[in-house]
Every structure is written in structure tokens, then in C-alpha cells.
Amino acid sequence: MSKQTDVLVLGGAGVDTIVHVPRLPLPFADSYMIRPGIETRAGQSGDFVALGLHALGLRTHHLDTIGDDHEGDLVRALHRDRGIPLTAVPAPGGTKRAVNLVGPDGRRLSLYDATRSRDSDRFDEPTVRELAAVTRHAHVVITQPCASTLPVLREAGVTVSTDLHDWDGVDPYHEAFALQADLVFLSTTALTDPERTMRDIADRGRARTVVATAGAAGSYLLYDGELTHTPVVTPPAPVVDSNGAGDAFASAFLLGRLSGEHPRRCALYGAVAGAYACTVPSTRTDAIGREELLARATEAEKRTHRPS
């Protein structure tokens, strides 16, 4: 059967309400006057990965639970307007939503509404199998109910990536994703020893490639037992929001991987896309295109090898 989709994204569809605050952490006060205001828009982790992949020219399909509510309408409209196929499974608890507090330096604090997901939520297994049969790769977000799809995707012979975000290296919920994926992304934010966690994932799980993003410190790549560092790439404009930077990194890394590039070059692609994402205001969902990504990656390589 021919592959109609490059990447099937599972989970992570939702809506964020963006609140700009004068600083983070936010000191206690009875009230704050907020400028430039408060805005609600579709776009959570799975949405951002799907948007990033689509902007890079990869055929992308998104599967998730979506509620019959205003937030669900926003998610459906986002995918329809961008031309990204979306398979929406009814969500009895409603569409996922969060509030993002964004500071002047682009840092954010996300507050997720845990009432929108239920332990009983499930994707229809025949639907997952049907979509997996025509895709080259699956990127699985750690939102409910994606964990149950991992064995199905494995049986279908699809390679799998996942992003553990700010996993502490201990939480068993994240561990299920970490050990069943071929490619694992995570943040160093909550890790006391990132290298130890990365090697533990590789030693106990399926992954040959583990990537830990470290914000302004760049990222770390563990590939076939060798740990290397990728420095940050200078953003093309002022940094305004870090939201979505990790998702952009993963999207660009996957472009490289599916194009047959070495993981170190994939990490460079990720650094370029992550830097670009930090220049996009939190109220927008723009993503870097393939032509610009490749040009900026080439320029970054030239600067790296330029004699001092």
C-alpha cells in the first residue's frame, strides 16, 4: 500500500488563552491591568507539530479527541484553514484547553485544564490502524489517550517519535512513551542529570536517538551512544515567546530524518526552527518554511566553520 502521509500526529490538539504578564513569576496582587490584552487561539503541542510539518512541505494528518464546543470549532477551523487533514474523535470531556502566562522575555507558564481528558478516553483502534497503514512515521504527543496507540503503531510497523516535554525522568506516565518510541525528544528543564536520563531511555527503550533541548544552552543529541551538543542559532528577529519552540524543533528534526539526513544535521534543522518560533508572537501560529529553514541552516553551518 502506498504511503499517502509522511507524518501522522496523534494527540495534542487544543486551545490556549494567552495572558501577557509584566513578569514571571507573577507576584501576588489583587489585580493586574494586562496589555496587549488576553486572546484565545487554537494551537497546542500536536497542532504546532502538525503546522510545522505542513509548513515544511511534509504530508501531515492529525488525529485527536475534539469536543463539540467553541474550542473544538477553533481547532477544526485552524486545520481547515491551513489545509491539514484532521480526524476528530468525539471528546465527552470537551476540547483540551490551557492558559499561558507569557512574560516580557518570552518565557511562559502553562496552566492545563485537567478536567478535559478522561482515563476512559480512547481512539478507535481500526481508525488508528487505517491511518498508520498509509503513513511513513507517527509522532505521538503525551496527551490522553495516546499511550494506548503505541502498541498498535508498533504492530503496524510505523516508526514513532514522541516529546516528553518537561519530564523529570521518574514519572511512570511519561516513561511508557519514552521506552516505546524510536526517537525521543525531551526538555532538560526538570532533569538533574540530562545525560543520565537520555542514556537510560536509550538503554531501556527502543530509541537509537534521544534529543534533549535546553533553551538558550542549545540541545544535546544522543545517537548510537555518542553524545553531542548543538548550539543555539541566532533568531532572525527579537525573541517574544518561547511557546511552540520545542514543537518547531521536533518538526524540523523530523524533516531531516525523513529526508535521510544525519541526526546531527537534523538537530541543526531543529535549532533553526526553534529559534524562528521564538520570534512569533504567542497569539499567532506561524511556522518556518522549508526554503528558509534550509537557507538558515546552511548559513549557520558557515558561521560555525568560519575562521576566527
Q: Could you explain how this protein is built, in words?
A:
- This protein has 308 residues and is an alpha/beta fold.
- It has nine helices and 13 strands.
- The protein has helices spanning 45-55, 70-82, 125-132, 150-155, 172-180, 194-204, 245-258, 263-277, 290-305; strands at residues 5-10, 14-20, 38-42, 60-66, 86-90, 96-102, 108-112, 135-140, 159-163, 183-187, 209-213, 219-223, 226-230.
- The strands form two sheets. The protein has a nine-stranded mixed β-sheet with strand order 5-4-1-8-9-10-11-12-13, sandwiched between helices. The chain has a four-stranded mixed β-sheet with strand order 3-2-6-7.
- It is globular and about 50 Å long.
- The model has no long low-confidence stretch (mean pLDDT 93).
Number of strands: 13
What is the oligomer described by this structure? Answer: single chain
SS content category: alpha/beta
Element-by-element helix/strand order: EEEHEHEEEHEHEHEHEEEHHH
Q: Report the helical percentage.
A: 25-40%
- Choose one word for the global shape: globular
- The proportion of residues in beta strands is 15-25%
Number of helices: 9
Taking pLDDT < 50 over at least 5 consecutive residues as the criterion, the unreliable ranges are none
